[in-house]
């Protein structure tokens, strides 16, 4: 983690930090087949989120074939932002969200091997916004394909603080 990420996470509220990054939590569209989150006690299970922005998937393809690493990292940031939106739906306030675990799925070629670099972009965003509450356990997995040919999908487990 860079020094700037750590120092930025020490100032202001999570909402202020999100706004300072030029970001806002998106509205998540209803889905008739699943919910964006399910709470059990203080744990919040976030459904896999794709890099949608304003109702549109930001891109499609396979990382290492027709999606570049930096593009995949940006998609991971958007998917993490959607996860944060689902967590806020569950607890009502960004200040109450603590990330416990993040699973990052990267549709990639078998020889890509940099799934963790894609996941780092999402981890950095969470720490920039939530500070210590954004630090988490994490798994990054390369997969053959994802829904609607998305290059990235992120699932999270959070807790209310």
Automatic annotation (TrEMBL):
CDD domains: YjgF_YER057c_UK114_like_1. Residues 16-152 form the Endoribonuclease L-PSP/chorismate mutase-like domain. Gene3D superfamilies: RutC-like. InterPro entries: Endoribo_LPSP/chorism_mut-like (IPR013813), RutC-like_sf (IPR035959). This is RidA family protein. It comes from Streptomyces coeruleofuscus.
């Amino acid at each position: 983690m860079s020094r700037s990420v750590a120092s930025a996470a020490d100032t202001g509220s999570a909402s202020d930090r999100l706004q300072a990054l030029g970001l806002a939590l998106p509205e998540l569209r209803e889905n008739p087949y699943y919910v964006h989150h399910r709470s059990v006690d203080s744990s919040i299970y976030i459904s896999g989120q794709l890099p949608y922005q304003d109702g549109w998937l930001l891109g499609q393809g396979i990382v290492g074939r027709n999606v570049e690493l930096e593009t995949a990292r940006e998609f991971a940031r958007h998917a993490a932002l959607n996860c944060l939106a689902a967590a806020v739906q569950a607890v009502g306030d960004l200040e109450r969200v603590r990330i416990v675990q993040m699973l990052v799925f990267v549709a990639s070629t078998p020889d890509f091997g940099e799934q963790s670099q894609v996941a780092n972009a999402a981890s950095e965003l969470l720490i920039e916004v939530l500070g210590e509450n954004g630090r988490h356990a994490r798994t990054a997995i390369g997969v053959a394909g994802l829904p609607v040919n998305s290059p990235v999908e992120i699932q999270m487990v959070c807790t209310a603080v």
